[in-house]
Amino acid sequence: MHTKILISCKSIKFYSHEDEDLFFAWIKQIPCIRHVSGERDIIYLHMKHKKTTKQELKALVALFRRYNINLKALDILINSKNRSFFENIKKCYSINMYPAKSCD
């Protein structure tokens, strides 16, 4: 059975039409995202699978940080292999500013 994985991106603020276009272009470049849908002020990312690569996770985190989307929405992707990556990200972004160090 194929489990559907949806990530909800709520109340995203776009500063121009070009900014919105860039958001959707960026999404198309992340391989683990099957397609995108929306309803009211929520954009849903339909994931291909739960086992995302580190590069895909980094791209998702960067996208979420750029558009000020709550990183908790990515918690659905946490598994035993990437738990330390997420713990590091949460430490780095636990305050509302860019970290002084890289979060790899």
Task: Describe this protein's structure.
By secondary structure, the chain is an alpha+beta fold. It has a single domain, classed as Alpha-Beta Plaits (2-Layer Sandwich). It contains three helices and three strands, in the order βαββαα. The protein has helices at residues 17-28, 54-66, 83-92; strands at residues 5-10, 33-39, 42-47. Strand 2 (33-39) and strand 3 form a beta hairpin.
Distinctive features:
104 residues; alpha+beta; Alpha-Beta Plaits; three-stranded antiparallel β-sheet; 34% helix; 18% strand
Topology:
Layout: E1 5-10, H1 17-28, E2 33-39, E3 42-47, H2 54-66, H3 83-92
Antiparallel strand pairs: 1-3, 2-3
The beta-strand count equals 3
Write out the strand line-up for the largest beta sheet, numbering strands in chain order.
1-3-2
Structural class: alpha+beta
State the CATH topology.
Alpha-Beta Plaits
Kindly report the average pLDDT value: 87
Give the helix proportion (percent range): 25-40%
Silhouette: globular
Q: Would you state the CATH class?
A: Alpha Beta
> Please, how many helices?
3
Describe the structure in brief:
34% of the residues lie in helices and 18% in strands.
